[in-house]
Amino acid sequence: MQNLVSTLPRRHILTFALVLAGALPVASIVSKPGFAATASKPKIGIVGAGRMGGGLGSALVKGGYEVMFSSRQPEELKDLVAGLGARARAGTVEQAAAFGDIVLLVVPYSAMPGLAKQVGAVLAAKPLVLDVSNPIPQRDGDEASKALEEGPAAYLSRLMPGVKIVRGFNAIGFTKLADPVLPGGGKLGVAMVGEDAKAVDLATTLARDIGFEPVVIGPLSLGKYLYRPSTFFNGSQSADQIREIAKTIGK
Question: If pLDDT is split at 50, 70 and 90, which confidence band does 18 have?
Answer without folding.
Answer: very low
